[in-house]
Amino acid sequence: MKLPLWRLIAAILVLSVMALVLISIAPVYIENYQLRRYIRTLTGAENAAAMTDDALRGSVLARAKQLDLPVAADDVRITRQNGKPRVQLRYAVQVDFPLYQVDLHP
Question: 29, 31, 101, 104: which has the highest count of C-beta atoms within 10 A?
Fold first, then answer.
């Protein structure tokens, strides 16, 4: 059974668009992974319990700025369990495509 040419072209077009979308959003998720890894290292350090919430927040914001992630001070929530700090992030990254705009919440 022979595949019609128009179907082959349509399939290649769809796969190309999917690849472009993936290439466009992948850096956001990679940078988010790097930030989360930094936070894990920061909160797992021996002196983390002695750090103030403002110092932790400042470190997280500085690292986010290095990674070009739009994290604001209000997006960083710090709680403590048994004296050990726990950092939670809630932020969005806007990605613009030619015909569509999407907010990613990594």
Answer: 31
